[in-house]
Request: fold
Amino acid sequence: MHLLRKGRWAAGLLTALFCSSGISQETCLACHGPGGNSVTPGIPSIAGQPKLFIETQLVLIREELRPAPQMLPLVKGMKDAEITRLAEHFSKLPAKPAAAGPADPKLTKQAMARAQALRCGVCHLSDFQGQNQVPRLAGQREEYLVSEMLAYRDNKRKGGDTIMAAALYGVSDGDIKALAHFLSRK
Reply:
């Protein structure tokens, strides 16, 4: 019964947050998953992402600087204060690893060596939790990480950080897959 009350309270809070911008909680949770932890391939988890990172991404999408056709109708016309409230809310939710199954030791070893060589921990922090405008990679969906890293490396990521494009320049598909495998299980 206690959990049921917590669930109702959380649902009420989400409804209050989203109703001000015309977005229902079901809209966000349908894609980004329960509590902001995605269960849908290709859709990122947003729980536990740094507040500034979420705010920045929502503004980039709203201003059509980062293409996200499925998100644009939801954030177009959204006020900065609403974006800040959403970012604050999702940044405080606990992130849950999206990966199923144990880590492959060979891929983990490869990824750890590559992450160290690329100095990923300088920006994303040593535990890959992210900071400020830098996203949390730990526990993110594996296929999403592969897709985004390939897009950065191949200079196809619109509204992205040029530092990431430079950092991933020349990184092999195999190393990217190893990094995604490792990070999704952190």
